[in-house]
Recover the amino acids of this structure.
């Protein structure tokens, strides 16, 4: 089933992926494409935005003679997920009340 | 790969500043390397990317991140945003709205300049008229005082309006970049 994704949900997906552990760009895209249509071009601005908001931190690891940039979720990023899930829960509760 | 990266660099340099270009290039270089390591063919990888689309898709985000604190930077960002909005079918309505608001803002700037100019011309004409009148010194001084007060108020009002339009233009740039970015993201879908 195809469904339009609202603004901000992709950020949550990326953050959720990083809750599993630190990861790098290609792996994040590869993991997420199992669930959503996402390209490297879509991921780039999301990563930069999260980085700018201090929800992610980065570090480089030398891999096969080149740098691989790893992304790590910060406490601000974790808080972002919690807030999003709380809001989601509130939406669900309101929906249930309306449907009674 | 080097040729492709050089092409990407050339396209990005037309739109972005060096630091922004460097960041995007390193991101795509890493992506290509990773895909090669996972066994994909270079030709297939490069075929999956469209340089112009890459540059277009990141333009709103890059513009939003910029400070746009100088006239030159703001003009450059505005031009880039208009180009992206009007060249992407999905964003054309947004582009038309943005362009209309820009035209309004520029018209208001011209109007505030016209107010200053007309105040100067009107003041000179008033002084010329005053010099030929038969009024006494006290009355002339009083009228000149009133003229200067009115002139100062007009200048202050015009400068204030000019400043607010500048702020408005900057805000519009940010808001429309954000709208363009969000509209782009909404195209992604859940499987």
């Amino acid at each position: 089933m195809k469904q339009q994704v609202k603004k901000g949900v992709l950020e949550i997906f990326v953050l959720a992926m990083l809750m599993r552990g630190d990861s790098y760009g290609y792996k994040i895209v590869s993991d997420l494409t199992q669930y959503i249509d996402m390209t490297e071009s879509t991921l780039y601005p999301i990563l930069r935005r999260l980085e700018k908001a201090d929800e992610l931190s980065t570090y480089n690891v030398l891999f096969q003679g080149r740098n691989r940039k790893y992304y790590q979720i910060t406490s601000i990023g974790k808080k972002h997920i919690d807030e999003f899930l709380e809001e989601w829960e509130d939406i669900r509760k309101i929906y249930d009340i309306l449907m009674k | 790969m080097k040729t492709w990266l050089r092409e990407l660099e050339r396209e990005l340099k037309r739109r972005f500043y060096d630091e922004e270009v460097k960041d995007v290039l390193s991101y795509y270089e890493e992506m290509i390397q990773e895909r090669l390591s996972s066994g994909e063919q270079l030709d297939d990888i490069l075929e999956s990317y469209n340089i112009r689309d890459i540059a277009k898709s990141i333009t709103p985000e890059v513009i939003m991140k910029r400070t746009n604190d100088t006239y030159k930077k703001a003009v450059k960002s505005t031009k880039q945003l208009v180009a992206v909005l009007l060249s992407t079918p999905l964003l054309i309505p947004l582009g038309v709205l943005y362009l209309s608001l820009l035209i309004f803002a520029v018209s208001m700037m011209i109007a505030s300049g016209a107010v200053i100019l007309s105040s100067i011309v009107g003041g000179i004409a008033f002084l010329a008229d005053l010099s030929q009148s038969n009024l006494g010194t006290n009355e002339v001084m009083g009228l000149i005082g009133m003229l200067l007060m009115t002139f100062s108020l007009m200048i202050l009002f015009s400068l204030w309006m000019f400043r607010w339009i500048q702020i408005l233009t900057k805000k519009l740039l940010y808001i429309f970049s954000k709208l363009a970015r969000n509209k782009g993201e909404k195209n992604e879908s859940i499987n």
About this structure: Chain B has a mean pLDDT of 84.
